[in-house]
# Entry
Amino acid sequence: MSKRKTLLLMLLLLSRAASAADFVGQASVIDGDTLEIQGIRIRFWGIDAPESTQLCRGADSNLYRCGANAANQLDSFIARRPVSCTSLSKDQYGRTVATCLVGTADLGEWLVSNGLALDWPHYSGGRYRAAQRDADRSGRGMWAGSYVEPWLYRACMRSGGSPVHCSDDANAHP
# Structure
């Protein structure tokens, strides 16, 4: 994304933050980066969490369901508190793409800073880069072991791979 587009997106985000949220209410966690509020599917802007079938290796080198873990941790963090989301766009699947808050906590930033999702610079312009660097240095979540980026996992699955094969490759992050 060009610097100009990133700047325009950040200005849009700031101006939208000053207005009322588009969706507020009780959220159901669909997966690590998707919620549903009032029947509307909402995909978090700028991050990517492991898919629900995706596996990661923990510090002990054992596989665990990191996608399911991200969703469960998010659900526990929200703890039935109201979620407010500001819509930014629609994705290719028709989901609303939004930034979402619980109180003052940006859920995308919370997920990345806890190693449960990755900053997706292609979309975020690096908005969550510092949170990701901190999670990496502290060995939180996926950073404690190894993982495959969720976008690469999905590509592998689309080409006929299996969850185990697509979750564990030679390019996994140490």
